[in-house]
Amino acid sequence: YSNKYADLAINKYGSHIVDACWKVSDMPYKEKIMIELIQREMLVQDSPFGRIVMRNCRVEQYKRRADEWRERERSLQKGKRMFKDIFDSSSTPNKRSDKKSKKSKK
């Protein structure tokens, strides 16, 4: 989807895709998304959905102080890695297997 993030950002449904991609992207890819959003800023800022994406990605902070933005993103990624095992969805019990075990007990 490279070079399509600005187009997605201005769309009611596409903006959710950009947000989801942002959450799972590593730093180099976040910067690629950021650069595209800045290059097409006028288009993105014209849309209410685009403005939300710009806020979620902290475009203004990147434009003012890219070094602080990078440090903040690194900290967030480090925190995610530290607690990955806690938030890993595979660690949640399977509800379907719980129902089967209850039925077999009857």
What does this structure look like?
It is built from nine helices and no strands. With 106 residues, it is mostly helical. α2 runs parallel beside α5. The chain is globular. The model has no long low-confidence stretch (mean pLDDT 83).
Topology at a glance:
Elements: H1 5-9, H2 14-24, H3 27-39, H4 41-45, H5 48-57, H6 59-64, H7 66-82, H8 84-87, H9 95-105
Helix pairs in contact: 2-5
Task: Provide tags for this entry.
106 residues; 77% helix; 9 helices
Low-pLDDT windows of residues: none
Give the overall silhouette.
globular
Helix run count: 9
Largest sheet: none
In short:
With 106 residues, this protein is mainly α. The protein has 9 helices and no strands.
